[in-house]
Every structure is written in C-alpha cells, then in structure tokens.
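Researcher: Following up on the earlier apo prediction. This time include the ligand. It's pyridoxal-5'-phosphate, with the SMILES given after the sequence.
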Amino acid sequence: MKKIILAQPLINISDAKKNLNSVLKSNFINEGNKTGNFEKKICKLLNVKYAVATTSGTVALFLALKAAGIRNGDEVIVPNISFPATANAVTMSGGKVILVDVNPSNLLIDDKSLLKKINRKTKFIIPVHVSGRGGNIKKILEICKKKSIKVIEDAAEALGSKIQGKNLGSFGVAGCFSLAPNKIITSGQGGIVVTNNSELFKRLKRLKNQGREGPTTGGEDKYISIGYNFKFTNLQSSLALSQLKNINWRIKRLKEIYKFYLNNLNQNKNFKIIKFNLKDGELPLWIDVWCLKRNRLFNFLKKKNIICRYYWKPINTCKPYKSSFKGLLNSKKLQEKMMWLPSSLDMSIKDQKKVCEKINLFFSKMR
Ligand SMILES: Cc1ncc(COP(=O)(O)O)c(C=O)c1O
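Model: Understood. Below is the ligand-bound prediction.
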C-alpha cells in the first residue's frame, strides 16, 4: 500500500535536467551566474532589494545575525516552539538564547510573554513563521522599534507567504528561508537571506565568502573581514530555478490542500486545525493540528500508511537549552498535542479524502 507522507520535493525532471545540463556544459559548477540569476528571481518574487543564497536555512540565520552585528553574550529572543535550528543559529553566532512562550491559537510568539523577556541586553528577536503563519509580525516590529531591538525573521517555512500584501521575510532587518527538501522549493539543502539594507547585504556577501570583497578572482582578492565558505553552487541554483518557474501554481496547490482539510475534517473538542489567514495572504506550507490523543491518532494513521509528523519538542526540553517551563506554560500545554498532517504539493484528492476519513473515524469512536 502506498504511503501518504508529510511532504516531498516536486521536481520536473526534464526541466531540472535542462537547467543542470547548462551548468554542466559550462563546466562552472561553483557559485556563479546561475546563483546570481536565482537570487534576482527571489528578489522579484519577494519584492526585496537583495537576496543572498547560502547552504541552509540555519546558516542563513547565522549569517544574518553576524551581518547585523551580534556580539558575544547578546540576548536573542526565540520562540520555545520552533525547530532547534533557530536557537542553534543564535548559539553559533555567540548570542544567548532567551526562550519565549507562544500563543496556542497560531503558535507564534505571544506578545505579552515577549514584553516580560525584553531587557537592556536584548539585541534581537527572531519571530518564527511556523508553517507559513506570520500574523504577529507587525506587533513585534512595533515593540522592537520602541526598544531598538533588531528583528530577524525565521521565514524558513514561509517562502511565498504574505501579511497584508507584504512578503514574510521582508519585514525585519533580514529574513531567512530554507530550501530543504520539505519546503515549497528545494535545492537538496540550501537557504536564502533577504534584506533591503545595502550595508547588511555587503556584509552577508563577504561573510559567506571568506571575507572577500567582490567576486572571487583568483590571486587578486581583497580579504577585508573574517568569513566562511557558505557558497550556494550553480548546481543547487539550477535545481531551485527549475521549481521557481511554477511557484504560483505551487502557492495555489498549498492553499487548495489546506481548504480541503478545513472542509472535510470534523473539528471537535478533541481535534482542531490551527488556522491560517488566507485572506491576509498567509500560505499554509504544512497543516498543523492540535489533538488530545495525539500519539494514539499518529499510530492509528500509521497503520493505515498515513505518515504524519510529530511537532518539535519545546526547545526548553532539549538538552542544550534545558530549563524549566516557568513562563512557558502554553508550550507545556502544547507538548505532545501537536502534529502535522500530510501536506505534499502533489497530494491527490483521493489521498486527502483518505486522511480525512480515517481521522474522522478515529474521533467518532472517541466520543
Ligand atoms: C522554523 C525553521 N527554522 C530553521 C530551519 C532551518 O533550515 P535548514 O534545515 O535549511 O537549515 C528550519 C528547517 O526546516 C525550520 O523549519
């Protein structure tokens, strides 16, 4: 029996081959013109001035923090419900992770909890646009503006998602995206930082390429700062470009999948879909649900070859960030109650119907 899974890449092999072949024929497989082309297309899509492609979403966050001037020991506020990558990028850059609680209705940073965590040492806040939601971004910007705190958006899951006509990732000083295989487009692994700030852009370019100013020339390069090697190759760019071609269709598909679940799943006191604001422009990358008997439902579905995904454990329960749930009680309540439903771009109506039928059956027996 076919497995229905959370998400998988959707690659048109003939388009991808054409793009890859042109890179292979040129014999320039390192970062080059294709990468520049990919970055330009991202700027156009997101209506931003600058985009810098890099090796992963985690590295995108790390580079953004470094380029925005993080110093050792600076406090960086991160939501307690996120992929640990968000916190790890802060630790990698020398910052101190301060965990903040989330709002259970949208899984985003809870602004009342946020105000309690801000102090003189707070230099950055990283709102995470979980599954493509970003409804709190304006409120966060308002709070940060008053306190001179920089906002770096973790938009790893939010490429193509908007709030009131403006793309998520373009609100803060920088926005960071992931191109891992479960995202709307993928390059195997990869990431992008976007910004409208030309100085930040120059620093990002230097940091990802050994501190070099301008393109790599060979012997004549100027190394004006420290830097790393986080280049994004023409090979990766050609794969990503082949999917960017039909991004509007991908966006439409994700909305259809969400609407189908919303119309066909029976929500009740034991089972709820976490809503997206489609009218505002939020794009559902994955469908997140809250359920009372999550582990039982997960195993029930697994036996029917429907493979869901448990939500991340709250970051404060992970070994490197272990701390009490004091001030993090919403995340404590969400623990072991959340999971993602299969949300693949190429999911058929038949498969979606099957998922809905089985979930409805499970909860009809529970009542
Ligand atoms: C919320 C969030 N932040 C950061 C990342 C890190 O991205 P990457 O896996 O590309 O390093 C991910 C990855 O999926 C993510 O979901």
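Model: The CA atoms of residues 269 and 292 lie 8 Å apart.
Researcher: Noted. I'll compare it with the apo version next.
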